[in-house]
Amino acid sequence: MKITIVHPDSEESHIRLSERKKNTMSALFKRLPPGTVIKRLGRTVDVAKECLISKVFTDDDVIEAVYTLVRMRRLWNGVKRSTQPCMITLDAVEKRAEMPCGHAITPQALYDYCWYELEKGNSAITCPYITNIKGDQCGCEWNERTITLSAVLSVEEKSLFQTKLHINTLKQQEIESTNVYPDDVIISLLHDSPKTYMEILKLRACPKCWSIIEHMGGCLSMTCQYQSCGFRFCFRCLGKYEHSYNHGTCPLAPFQFSSDC
Q1: Which residues of 150-186 are buried (b: 16+ CB within 10 A; e: fewer)?
Q2: Per the CB 3.0–4.6 Å rule, which of 129, 207, 217, 226 could disulfide with 103?
Q3: Crossing angle for the helix pair 107-119 and 155-177, nearest 10 degrees?
Q4: pTM of this prediction?
Q5: How many whole angstroms separate alpha carbon 73 and alpha carbon 151?
Q6: What are the pLDDT digits (tens) for 201-233?
Q7: Residue 109 is inside which H or E element, if any?
């Protein structure tokens, strides 16, 4: 009996089983990963492994095998290996990468850990190795190149990793930019801060058009140079300048603010 199996990656495999040996479904499942679900014509075939294949399928049947594809991550040549067990899984059989901080981790454990940290919103991947009984972590930050090589990232995985890391970094910057004092706190801090007085007030706004005028010295008489203004005023009291008045003894006008405009 010939059976065609369509796998999750659309690859096909052909299995030939002898009907004379009265093979059961267990013979078919042995050739597939654990937990595989068999489908035919889009419907799940719910049969026990003890059932005879000849009672379920006919020659040249096409079935679909549904299971999770698992990519085996093998360390690339050139990646420094460690003899220590994996810091996360404690696996001492699969080859482990030695990270810059000296701690060991398998490629799959590193991949899973990085995505776990990124899903939490972290913008930096740090070593989780526990250094003492208090639970303190190593905390060494791993760069992108180290993670790419040690986790054996594919081109697509690397692109997704970079995108997620960039998004987390932007979100973190937004959070940090909002951690500022409210206006009332800033005002209170300004009130409590040392006061600095200007010895000479050099800038005034024209009382008529509010153009900024600088007093360089000499007479207090100022004439606004704005084209449609030409107002003449006293730089000290901001009143209209009159020759008959002693502007050297006139009261000093208060500071001008933009809200006065």
Answers
A1: bbbbeeebeeebeebbeebeeeeeeeeeeeeeeeeee
A2: 129
A3: 30
A4: 0.46
A5: 7
A6: 678 889 888 888 888 878 888 899 888 888 999
A7: helix 107-119
